[in-house]
Design brief:
Rossmann fold, 12 strands, globular, alpha/beta
């Protein structure tokens, strides 16, 4: 079954070319089912790329998903095409103030991890979204800095700077084999990481409300949950496409920043060679498992949340 998005959204044509099942609004209105209502708060500067990456994964399940794009009204994005946010996105304050109920919500990462949370210009607004989601969203998935922000806002978990950027594709282990998020997973799986900071593992492990579902010695904590998977915190980027790490690497090189090639990404760690994708299957499985969990557990009448 498809994800429901406007036909005029730039991602629509890209996803159709990839044979991802997308459905325009006019066709979806004639189907007599209740789609899952999922919000996506897109904080990434690569607005269009992030839309495609996340929608690609949400479109690989037998469920119809109705997407609502959210943006920070208190932040002026300089990277989205002119008029794109105004046309396709809703100011997050409208959702928060209306108390609109959602089956699921995805909060992406953002390139602000080296700043203290309170110094991010939209921190107050984001905090409002996180607080809102606790009562009005059945399950919220936080990605990368979005995960750090959620853990800090809800549980006071601090983040710490890393000695060097965690950058590459790393093996991760599954701690909770019977979690609904890891159905069909191998004992070890690969996932991209790209960050300069990490949430404090000791603080996470000692908090009674939090469960470390997946981690690795080299990359640290990867996936944390709370409230029986109604809160999901993913420190890496399963959604990344084949060339995202390559673009980040070459961007930092061009800026003269201290950066090494992403680990376990290029064949023989040679940046002149085409990267090998080894995380795609588990990325699709993880997002499908999350959607299936939401579908199975969320009430049909969202007012019962």
């Amino acid at each position: 079954m498809p994800i429901k998005i406007p036909r005029s959204l730039p991602a629509f044509d890209t996803l159709q070319e990839e044979r991802v099942f997308v459905m325009p609004n006019d066709r979806a209105e004639h189907q007599d089912i209740r789609p899952l209502r999922v919000g996506m708060l897109n904080l990434m500067p690569t607005t269009l790329d992030t839309e495609i990456q996340v929608l690609r994964l949400l479109g690989n399940s037998p469920l119809q998903v109705d997407i609502t794009f959210l943006r920070m009204g208190s932040h002026d994005s300089k990277n989205a095409p002119p008029g794109h946010l105004e046309k396709f996105y809703i100011n997050s304050k409208e959702i928060v103030n209306s108390g609109m109920r959602l089956d699921g919500l995805i909060i992406t990462g953002a390139p602000v991890e080296t700043l203290p949370f309170e110094e991010v210009d939209y921190w107050e607004e984001l905090s409002g979204v996180i607080d809102y989601s606790g009562k009005n969203v059945f399950s919220t998935m936080h990605i990368c800095w979005g995960a750090q922000a959620g853990l800090y806002r809800r549980y006071g978990i601090p983040k710490k700077p890393l000695a060097s950027k965690l950058f590459g594709v790393f093996p991760h282990e599954v701690n909770e084999q019977y979690s609904p998020l890891f159905r069909g997973f191998d004992d070890e799986f690969l996932a991209p990481q790209s960050r300069h900071t990490a949430s404090d593992r000791d603080a996470i492990a000692s908090h009674p409300a939090l469960t470390i579902q997946s981690e690795t010695r080299e990359a640290g904590v990867f996936i944390v949950t709370a409230r029986d998977c109604r809160e999901v915190y993913v420190t890496g980027h399963l959604e990344y496409d084949p060339l995202t790490l390559d673009r980040e690497y070459r961007r930092d090189l061009a800026k003269g920043l201290p950066i090494t090639p992403p680990k376990n990404y290029y064949p023989e760690d040679d940046p002149s060679r085409k990267p090998v994708v080894r995380w795609r299957a588990h990325a699709h499985l993880f997002f499908s498992n999350w959607l299936n969990f939401v579908y199975q557990e969320t009430p049909f009448n969202l007012d019962e949340l």
